[in-house]
Amino acid sequence: SRPPLVAECDAVVVGAGFGGLYAIYRLRELGLKVIGIEAASDVGGTWYWNRYPGARCDIPSLLYSYTWSEELRQEWRWSEKYAGQPEILRYAQHVADRFELRSLIRFDTRVISADWDEAGESWTVRTDRGDCIVASTCVMATGNLSVPNKPKLPGVERFRGPIYHTGQWPHQEIDFSGLRVAVIGTGSSGVQTIPMVAKSASRLTVFQRTPNYSVPARNAPLSDADIAAAEPMIAKYRESLETPEFGRVPSNAFDAPVPAREVQWARYEQLWEQGGGGILTAFPNILTDEAVNDVACDFVRDKIRGMVDDATTAEALSPKDYPLGVKRICIDTGYFATYNLPHVDLVDLRAEPLTTVTETGLETAVRSFALDALVLATGYDAMTGALAAMNIRGRSGVTLNEAWADGPRAYLGLMVSGFPNLFVVTGPGSPSVIGNVIHACENHVEWITACLGSMRAKGLTRIEPERDAERAWMAHVADAASRTLYPKANSWYQGANIAGKPRVFMPYVGQGYRHRIAQIAQRNYEGFVLR
Ligand code: NA7
């Protein structure tokens, strides 16, 4: 145990994942006194907690890397095309050591409140360790997928076996050998862990509410030649910090032609062989034109039928009622083939809803299942969960949750009106989780540091977005989404997975975000009030 810290500083950074680490680095470089706070015992954020078997990034490692340090880029060598969680965590740890960031971070410490003091123009941040830190600026780098969604399954408290959530996995290896295991949830986490759990469990039952589109990763070791070949692409990303390969809607989407079905099919075959999320770049209008997207859906369903022996199971595993790519597409290794194993079963919760958890298993409306362990791959209170849990109180005593009662809003996804000097890294209204979140973090951190640097140079101490600018931005975010197929799925992008969460399409799927926010900065921070 350590004594509580009572301190004043220039900036508090909450979270030591990829957003927080870089924020600490840049703010220190700016000459600020920075204090980092992290709930975990180490750096890594999402990659610290998500240790479930099979946890792996769905973006190629060479892109899922910081671009801001050439030295770092040269000295770090990824071993696989898609890095697994342990390697990504090692990367985060390496960054923390290499740039000597650890000494600035208070680990095992959770923020319990942050209060704005108008007279002192400062935030008072309190933690569960009794710390009280007064800072002129607060940077919330608390992550988009950091608060697990644990559905209230009826009777769950009775279950005698262990219950694991993929986003809060224990730090020791879990041995499922000889056990009857259930996995609930078939999003990216479920799709990744199911084939791994099937390797050791004596019986695996997957409880699926909504099937997902999944594409083979075709993961492989990275050769030196692969790395050299990726150089120009990486340089291009540094330039734009926008990742077109994954979920972003390109600017030519709206007037692109609809190619003949055979042409589309042939292209999908090619991309399927290549593996990974590239399928979403097949045609510029894949996320905007239902006619184009429909063919992609047919293509993936056809592949599922080809991979799964039992026709009823294949049918249940085939997504039907939403377009491909508007929930984050899954990238798997052997997911569908896992259902061909004799000890693996799928339960379609739409056909037979879960009625209760018992001491020894699960019951649906038609059957009961004896179980030794339960794995919840049920996702996150995404994008806003961590912010909502921190008791943030801004100007006039209004809490962030009150301000967001009708749904989250933030000007440019960076700042919330009523909450001066509080920056959000990858907040709602920014591209955040669409594409590559590391690049999204870099983009935000660089904007925030440039902003603070320019304020200091001009002797300004307070920044807050105008309510109207914020409103107009969120209307633009909604408009950008409405021009695409994104709203056609009940996804966590719009908070649909959390009961009672107001439905607002949170990520920005429009074009040229980095350019837009740079322009706003150039125009003397248009839409912000600075003094
Ligand atoms: P996701 O993508 O939110 O997936 C969660 C899964 O859990 C999804 O299949 C849900 O079904 C299911 N779920 C959630 N609650 C329940 C209940 N109550 N009963 C049954 N099934 C339930 O989270 P992941 O962790 O897989 O992935 C998150 C992101 O991490 C991913 O997008 C990548 O960016 C990496 P639903 O679809 O809601 O019907």
Description:
The protein has helices spanning about 20-30, 45-50, 70-75, 85-100, 190-200, 225-240, 260-275, 290-305, 310-315, 335-340, 385-390, 400-405, 435-460, 465-480, 515-520, and strands at about 5-15, 35, 105, 110-115, 120-125, 130-140, 165, 180-185, 205-210, 215, 330, 345-350, 355, 360-365, 370, 375, 390-395, 420-425, 465, 530. By secondary structure, the protein is an alpha/beta fold. α1 runs parallel beside α13 (about 435-460). It is globular, with a radius of gyration of 23 Å. Bound molecules: ligand NA7. Ligand NA7 binds near residues 188, 210 and 497. Ligand NA7 binds near residues 185 and 349. Belongs to the FAD-binding monooxygenase family.
Number of strands: 20
| Mean of pLDDT | 96
Q: What are the segments in which pLDDT stays under 50 over at least 5 consecutive residues?
A: none
Q: What is the 3D form?
A: globular
What's the number of helices? 15
Question: Any ligands, ions or cofactors bound here, and which?
Answer: ligand NA7
Proportion of helical residues: 25-40%
Oligomer: single chain
Rg on CA atoms, Å:
23 Å
Q: Please report which band the strand proportion falls in: under 5%, 5-15%, 15-25%, 25-35%, 35-45% or over 45%.
A: 15-25%
Q: SS-based structural class?
A: alpha/beta
> Major beta sheet, specifics?
8 strands, mixed
Ends distance: 41 Å
Could you give a short description of this structure?
The protein is 31% helix and 17% strand. By secondary structure, it is an alpha/beta fold. The model has no long low-confidence stretch (mean pLDDT 96).
